[in-house]
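Bench notes, afternoon.
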Amino acid sequence: MEHQGAEEWVPSSRSVAKLGEAAEACRGCDLWQDATQVVFSRGRASARIVLVGEQPGDQEDRAGEPFVGPAGKVLMDALEAATLDPSTVYLTNAVKHFRHTVRGKRRIHEKPAIGHITACHPWLEAELSVVRPHVVVCLGATAGRSVLGRTVRIGAERGKLIDPVEPGGAQVVITTHPSALLRLRDRSEWGEAFDGFVADLKVAAAAAD
């Protein structure tokens, strides 16, 4: 399906609250048709750090808030381990609706297409223009692509400060998505991955200060 993009739905008079309200009417791509609702953001509009995920999951789609499911719990634990107060950051996603396939009674996460990322990008761009963070943390490759406008290699780029895309913009830190940790079965492997995730968040915290 051809994706129109969100430009015509993004209001010119902007605040986080107004953006969130306007996003409810967005029809810039097809994902709104099967989602329960738009999932916009949560957190402080004056935050020095913005964390960008991929898209809402099943629990987020039902609750209307990002990072309230199992991956959100991992993220909250990692923020606290990195001595970052979760209440001081701004949380959002590159794509605002839950893309999924239905198998029986279950809704299975499906990765957003490039067209969905592109169509939803005006919302993220508008959010960053309002919040004006010092650092943007990209949680996973989809978020990295949306923020940087290019393919991101997590293994090669994670944990490093990347210069702003635009003059005066925020520095960027790439890291894994917390959901990747949930897929690890070996406890020792999980611990190492969690420590690496926390280390990446500490890079962002130091840069924001």
